[in-house]
UniProtKB/TrEMBL annotation:
GO terms under biological process: DNA integration
Pfam families referenced in this protein's UniProt entry, alphabetically: HTH_21 (PF13276), rve_3 (PF13683)
Limits of the Integrase catalytic domain: 104-267
Protein name: Putative transposase
Entry's Gene Ontology molecular function annotations: nucleic acid binding
Source species: Gluconacetobacter liquefaciens
Amino acid sequence: MKEVVAYVVTRHGYSQRRACGVVRQHRSTQRLVGRRDPRTAERQRMREIAAARVRYGYRRIHVLLRREGWAVGKNLVYRLYGEEGLTLRRGRPKRRKMALHREARCTPTRAHEAWSLDFVHDQLSDGQKFRALTVIDIYSREALAIEVGRRLRGEDVVAVLNRLVYRHGAPRCLFADNGGEFTGRLVDLWAYHHSVRMDFSRPGKPTDNAYIETFNGTLRDECLNLHWFGSIAEAQRQIEAWRRDYNESRPHSALDHMPPAEYAARAKILLAPMGASKTEN
């Protein structure tokens, strides 16, 4: 309202008293000088974070600020976030129908008990298409691998799974859709050899594999849509860098705003005494 009074004074040559009467604002309000801290430093740091992580909302920016030692609350960050014009525009229509989700048939109680995998498609700057095989741990939401290549087949899926088994051990259950790369003989033989139960999504039901679908949406939103890849090698470097940042730095709302790697490490420490007591008995 102060801006309106100033406009009337400047545009029409009215006195401040008369302009306040026109817009029906008390003169004491017009002359009141705000004493609220402008939070210039916080605003600058928020802009820097938003420029580096363009798809982060105010909640994740608040988590990063608290990590750096800023004494700011969520409501303050929300207000500054809006005043600085950093609000994200998703452009996605909201669902107006109820969606019923199937109960997960394999519920992991610790990391590396259940993995989920799927393919993501994208293209290089010259129009050539490539694929990315994504594998996540359902319990910790950790991105275990993102394999990038022009053509990825069943043998490539098995190669990635073998690398992960060497690092973490074989899972108890594996979630995947009905793509030919997952339902073929090679993956079936691999699952039989490692005693892994395959849980395939029902046709036309991507919500049966909701965790990997959510992860793929985040990958596309925060990485694929923000970069132009000139070659497969460049795509591999950029996507691998994003995967590490996702695991080690990015706050995850489902994990109490902890990164997946930190959540997995903390869960491992909490479960260690339980496993030790069982061994002693």
